[in-house]
Design a protein that fits this description.
The chain is an all-alpha fold and 156 residues long. The protein has five helices and no strands.
């Protein structure tokens, strides 16, 4: 069997790395959108949302780094160009948003996209017998599903 340094079949590791680069692109656009929400939020919930958006973009930045490092661990190169992120990402750059409700609706849409993609990566990582990627995606999904519930509760 043709395996990489961590014992994964090279073709399966390549497929995982490609999907992780798609995830990295989505996380990167989501991160920048969230920075914009943080910078531009206005209104009665300013103080609350300003802090929540900072928490979210700080967490997204950590995940961006972890996903890039996982791609490297698989023996591949993480994408770093925003021009490529725009091509790969299902999440698109948002216009300036200052309304908290609109920002949270867009955050919930982004989480939906991310969670679906991570579940697809889970299936690929299970097929590749890649416990490292599997554990990472499982942890992300669990935390993000809770955030979806919390942000949804805020809207209601």
């Amino acid at each position: 069997m043709n395996t990489n340094r961590i014992g994964l079949e090279k073709t399966k590791a390549k497929k995982l790395a490609e999907q992780l680069n798609v995830l990295l692109a989505n996380y990167s656009i989501f991160y920048q959108n969230t920075r914009s929400y943080h910078w531009n939020i206005k209104g009665e919930k300013f103080f609350e949302l300003h802090l929540k958006f900072e928490e979210l973009y700080s967490d997204l930045l950590l995940k961006i780094d972890e996903v890039a490092e996982r791609i490297l661990t698989l023996g591949h190169t993480p994408e770093h160009r925003y021009s490529q992120y725009s091509n790969l990402s299902a999440i698109k750059e948002n216009e300036k948003v200052s309304d908290g409700k609109i920002a949270i609706e867009q955050i919930l849409d982004a989480f939906k996209t991310i969670i679906i993609l991570q579940k697809e990566i889970l299936m690929i990582s299970a097929e590749a017998d890649d416990e490292g990627t599997n554990a990472l995606m499982s942890d992300y999904i669990r935390m993000q599903e809770k955030l979806v519930w919390m942000y949804s509760a805020f809207l209601n």
